[in-house]
Amino acid sequence: MSRSYQDPLYRDVADLVNATTGRRAISASRLQKLVAEAKYVRKTQGTMGLMNYAQRLPYQFLSTNEIEMLRRSPRYREFSHRVIDLFVREGVISQFEAMMLRRAV
Question: What is the model's pLDDT at position 75?
Fold first, then answer.
């Protein structure tokens, strides 16, 4: 069952992005919509479709410079793990897939 964007994890992820970029780049409600889209992509296009979607996703709401700011941020690992946790909790990816992603981050 999908949780409301009022959920602290959605707010935490949005706050991490916004604090790093210095602007309101994404809201918790927009993040909820992106998770729903990711679920749909996974269901209709499989794992490879989801990977392709995930690679393009940041460019929907961040500039190239802001993406680099996030990657260089000391909180990047924390941010990445929170997004992975969110995807697991919402049923987008499995625990096993999450474990593999965490190792790659």
Answer: 87
Domain segments of the chain as ranges: 8-104
Structure token pair of residue 8:
């602290």
Q: What phi, psi does 49 have (nearest 5°)?
A: -65, -40
Q: Is the dihedral of CA 39, 40, 44, 47 positive or negative?
A: negative
Taking 50 as the threshold, does the pLDDT of residue 19 lie above it?
yes
Count how many Cα atoms sit within 13 Å of the Cα of residue 3 in the half-sphere of its side chain: 15
Would the pLDDT of 56 be above 60? yes
Q: What is the mean pLDDT of residues 20-45?
A: 95
pTM, 2 dp: 0.82
Q: What is the 3-state secondary structure (H, E, C) of the chain?
A: CCCCCCCHHHHHHHHHHHHHHCCCCCCHHHHHHHHHHHHHHHHHHHHHHHHHHHHHHHHHCCCHHHHHHHHHCCCHHHHHHHHHHHHHHCCCCCHHHHHHHHHHC
